[in-house]
Amino acid sequence: GDLTGTGISADKKIQVIGGHNCTDVPFGVHYCDHLEESIPPRHSVGKSYIVSAPWIQGNQVKGRIIRVTALEDDTTLVYDPPQMRVDTHIAAAGDTIEISQTDENFMVSSAKKILVTEYMTGQNAGGNTGDPAMAVAVPMGQYRREYLIHAPVNYEANFVNIVAPTVATD
Predict the structure, then answer these.
(1) Helices H, strands E: what count in the chain?
(2) pLDDT, tens digit, 9 for 90 and up, residues 78-136
(3) Cα distances (angstroms) measured from residue 14 to each of 44, 152, 161
(4) Distance in angstroms (rounded) separating the CA atoms of residues 156 and 36
(5) CB 48: neighbour CB atoms within 10 A?
């Protein structure tokens, strides 16, 4: 079953990894692949995120499914630019809004903490490339000035999305 939104607590330091051994994104559209991602602790989750569609060969964007999970009851979301036909209210902590197969870039924010997870669709869902992938979005308040990027040499192509202020020069 889907454990999205399940709360976990411990009296010692732990790491929580979410994932699946072979899933289709979206469900029932092949190709399946394993997904895994470290789930951040509550104190690391933010209130504002920018989500950007992954680029693939041929200067195309790849669709993805986005999940926004509330950490508190009665959470209201704001989208910039506004997203048509997307819910803006999450009633209970642990509940999720799923934004289906979008290739749009936007910001999602709330007065309360939210966790945003992106799932890149498999190659049969469009673009004829890429297996499903999972990424926990980084809250805007935790952006850094420097990053290291790993690009495997045994892949046909590697891509990275970089989000920066329009006035950034470095």
Answers:
(1) 0, 11
(2) 999 998 888 999 999 999 999 987 888 999 999 999 999 999 888 888 777 778 889 99
(3) 14, 29, 30
(4) 21
(5) 15
